[in-house]
Amino acid sequence: MSQHKAEVALLLEYVFSLYSLKRAKMPPSAHEFVIHCEQYGVKKSDWATDMGTVEGVEPSLLTPKQLLQKLIALDRVGRVQRLIELCHTVQDLHTCVRKIGKLFALPEDAEEGADAESDLSYAAKCQLISKLISKARRTVTVPNPHKGKKQPRAKKEGSPAKDPATEAEPPAEERDVTVVEDPTTAAAEANEEEEELKGAKIVDLTEEEKETFKEMVRRTFQLLETVLASRPAHITQQPLTKFMHFSKWCLSHHLIEEDAAEDLSKFEDEAQTAMGQQAEQLEVVMKLKALPTGDEAALRELLDALWTDGKEKSFAPHSADVLSCIATAATASGISEALRELVAERLTKTHTVLKKDGTELPRRALRLVNDILSKKKHDAIKQQLEEEKKQHH
Fold it and tell me: What is the rounded distance in angstroms from the CA atom of residue 194 to the CA atom of residue 188?
C-alpha cells in the first residue's frame, strides 16, 4: 500500500506540473483522477504517513494534500462539471449542488492559482445550473425504449454521455464579434430535451431520497435566483426556459417543495420578459444589418429612433450586440464623418448609462469612440500649430 500511495503522489505531481502553467486546460479524465483521490482520502493529513518512495525519483516538495488542493484550484468549474457528469445517485446530486454553492460564494482571489475571473462568470454559472438540472432529471428516470437514438443512454462509469448543457456561449464582452442569440434557441433546446425524456418513468425512490432530491431542487432554485440577480445589464441570456420545464416536471412528480412551487409564476414572468428583450435586440440587429451599405439617410433614421427610445440619454436597446452593430454600420464606407462623430457622441453618453451597472462598451463601439476622439485631438493640435505659424509670420 505504501508503494501504491507513492505512485499516486507521483502522478499527482505529474498532473500538476502538466497543467499548472495553464497552457492546456485540464481534461475530464484529469478532473476525475483528482476527484477519486479526494474521495479516497488523499486530502486527509494522515493519508501520507505510511507513504513509501518511488525508486529513482526525488521526493516532492509538496505533500499529496497540498498537490490535491492546488489541482482543485486550477479549474474549479471543470471539476464541478465532471462531478455532475459522474453523478449516479440523488445524494451525488445533493453533493454537487453544495459544491456549486461554495464555488459561487468564492471571492475572486479565493486561492492563488484559481482561474476566478473566467470560472465565476455569469455564463459559467448558468452553464453549471443548466447542466445540473439536466443530470438531476436523468438520474431519477428510466429511459423510454421507444424514443430511439435521441433518448439519453445509461451512463457507464468513467465515460459519461455528453450532456446537452455542456457548452456555454462566452459572455458578449469577451468576444471580438458579438452575436445575438435567437431568443427561440434556448426554448427549442429545452423543448428538445423535454421531448427526449417524454415518457421516461421515475425510478423507485425512498422517502429519504425524495426529501434529499427536494432539498437539492430548493438549493438549485436559490442559486438560480442569486445568479439572475447578478446578471450584467448587457447580457440577456437566462436559463429560465429549461428550469421552468424542470420545475414543472418536479411538481408533477411531487419532487419539489410547495413553497418553491409557488414561486414558479415569477420565473415564468421573467422568462417571458427575457425572451421579449432578446427578440427586440435581435430585431434591431437585423434591421442594422439589412441597411444598404453607405445609405446614410436610412441609418440616421434608425439611429434617431433608437436614440429617442432611450429618451435621448442612450441608445435603446443598448446590449453589446446592438452597440457593436451600430458601430459597424457607422464605420461603413459612404457614411459621412459628421454622422460618425454624432454616433460616437451618443455612444459616449450610452457608456455613461452602462457604467452605472458596471458595464463597458463592446470593443467595436469603444474603438469607434477612441478613433473619433483621436482624430479630433489631432485636428485641434494641427489647427493650433497653424495659428501659431500665422502669428509668427
Answer: 10
pTM, 2 dp: 0.62
> CB-based burial of residue 106 (10 Å sphere; 0-12 exposed, 13-18 middle, 19+ buried)?
middle
- Interaxial angle between packed helices 122-139 and 76-85, expressed in degrees from 0 to 180 and rounded to the nearest 10: 10
Residues with Cβ < 8 Å from 96, sequence gap 6 or more?
Answer: 80, 83, 84, 87, 132, 135
Rounded Cα distance between 160 and 87, Å, is 9
Which is it for the CA torsion 71, 97, 244, 135, positive or negative? Answer: positive
- How many CB atoms lie under 10 A from the CB of residue 133? 27
Q: Write the pLDDT tens digit of every residue in 140-190.
A: 998 765 554 444 444 444 444 443 333 333 333 333 333 334 444 555 555
Residues 6+ apart with CB under 8 A from 101: 219, 223
Nearest CA to 323 among 304, 300, 346, 342? Answer: 346
Q: Where are the alpha helices (DSSP H) in the chain?
A: 2-19, 28-39, 64-74, 76-85, 90-105, 116-119, 122-139, 183-196, 207-229, 240-252, 258-262, 264-290, 296-309, 320-330, 337-355, 363-392
Find out whether 316 and 310 touch, Cβ atoms under 8 Å.
yes
